[in-house]
Amino acid sequence: MTDFSYQLYSSRDFGPLTETLGMLAALGYAHVEGYGPVYEDLDATKQALDETGLTMPSGHFAMDMVAGDPAKVIEIAKALDLRKIVVPFLMLTDRPADAAGWSSFGRRLAAAGKPLQDAGFDFGWHNHDFEFTALPTGELPIDLILENNTVGFEFDVAWAAVAGKDPADVIAQYGSRIIAAHVEDRAPKGENADEDGWADAGHGTLDWPGHFSALKAAGCDLFIIKHDKPADDNRFASRALAYMTSL
Fold first, then answer.
1. Per the confidence metrics, is the pTM higher than 0.90?
2. How far is CA 245 from CA 25, 29, 80, 212, in A?
3. Residue 173 forms beta bridges with which residues?
4. What is the rounded CA–CA span in Å between residue 229 and residue 24?
5. Closest by CA position to 26, among listed 37, 14, 16, 18
6. How many Cα atoms occupy the beta-carbon half-sphere of 217 within 13 Å?
7. pLDDT at 1 over 80
8. Topology (CATH) of 57-233
9. How far apart are CA 84 and CA 246, in angstroms?
10. Sign of dihedral through CA atoms 24, 30, 33, 36?
11. Whose CB has fewer CB within 10 Å in the chain, the N or C terminal residue?
């Protein structure tokens, strides 16, 4: 049976970390994925993980931090026993406008990640929708980010679907590069407006039985359940885990 992780960003608007971890452990999660705020007090985070029995095999880190202070990233990763370090996002103002710019960014990303890979960590990029939006010249930024380098890919299945890309095609193309997958879902068009159109995994429009099977066949070994804006994180965490465990 697959042990599932939970992206802690999903619960950013709810209780303190200790309560969130307690909830997740009680529901049956094995792991969590970290992001910025949980690294601010490493001792407290480590203690909370130890008390609940949860582990943190992966974490999101800003590009500026990875590129500017890899030693600090490694320090945090070792303190929390991370295995996978992921850069998750580029602000709109930082995104290149053309193919040459995205290729250059891919090279910078690879260079920034090399010290982490040399230290024994998996390193990857996490997508949203903009990487799958074609440039005026036809290229997809995701292809330019990942070309000619060893950067891994944390595939957010639902964000690719938001961009109009069939996730099955992405898995077929990049399966060997996928180091982790984000498990989230989209509601039918016009529904769940209070949750920005997101849905609990297995309760939306995505083919999760098919995608889950394809990702496992491709060698993906970490599945991270996520919801970008849940109205109730306990409801979401419970329903999504129950569904994915049933697969």
1. yes
2. 15, 10, 26, 11
3. none
4. 17
5. 18
6. 9
7. no
8. TIM Barrel (3.20.20)
9. 26
10. positive
11. N
Extract the tokens encoding 227.
């919801």
> What letters, b where the CB count within 10 A reaches 16 and e where it falls short, cover 41-58?
eeeebeebbeebebbbbb
The count of other CB atoms within 10 Å of the CB of residue 95 is 14
Q: Is the CB of residue 63 less than 8 Å from the CB of residue 112? A: yes
Q: What is the pLDDT of residues 98-138, one digit of tens each?
A: 999 999 999 999 999 999 999 999 999 999 999 999 999 99
Give CA angle at 143 (142, 146), nearest 5°. Answer: 85
Give the residue carrying structure tokens 């950067």.
151
Q: Where exactly are the structural domains of the chain?
A: 57-233
SS3 52: helix
Residues 6+ apart with CB under 8 A from 210: 168
Rounded distance, CA 6 to CA 29, Å? Answer: 7
235's CB contacts (< 8 A; 6+ apart) are 200
Q: Cα–Cα distance between 72 and 43 in angstroms, integer?
A: 15
| Strand 185-186 with 198-199, pairing | antiparallel
Bridge partner list, 156:
182
Backbone angles phi, psi at 231, to 5 degrees: -75, -25
| 33 three-state secondary structure | strand
pLDDT in tens, 142-199: 999 999 999 999 999 999 999 999 999 999 999 999 999 999 999 999 999 999 999 9
Residue appearing with tokens 């960014």: 105
